[in-house]
Prior knowledge:
Number of domains: 2
Number of strands: 2
Structural class: mainly alpha
Strand order of the largest sheet: 1-2
Amino acid sequence: MGIVDWSRSGLRRTVIEVIGWTLVIVGIAALVLPGPGLLMMFAGIAVLSQQYDWAKRAVEPMKVKAFHAAESGVRTWPRIVTSIFGACCLIALGIVWGSRPSIPTYELFGYAIGPELPFDGWVTGTSLIFSGMIAFVLIGYSVRRFRNP
């Protein structure tokens, strides 16, 4: 019986480690590439906080700052409308990016410039669409939590 408990505990710890560090690494990559980088990094640290004291200490200040930013983002109607517009732009950009539109090329000193979007395709487009959908969910949550006491 003791061996089974140990293996479950070891398996649980391994799963937490893999999920947490994967989210942190993908979040760091998404800071440079299109995607919800800060959100993924926070999720990874939140998962790792089940194993590490340093992560537990990091989660609370991040949570406080995130709630403060969310509250300030929905304080006025122009901010809410701007946030919704930004989320719509992310989704539209994702659709455009994924559909690989033909981009005109320009010649500058004999070199063709602008033949393709960087990181073109549906992988990046889907990431942008997903980011826009996350933004809608977070805007809705923030409005419900901070605008309706």
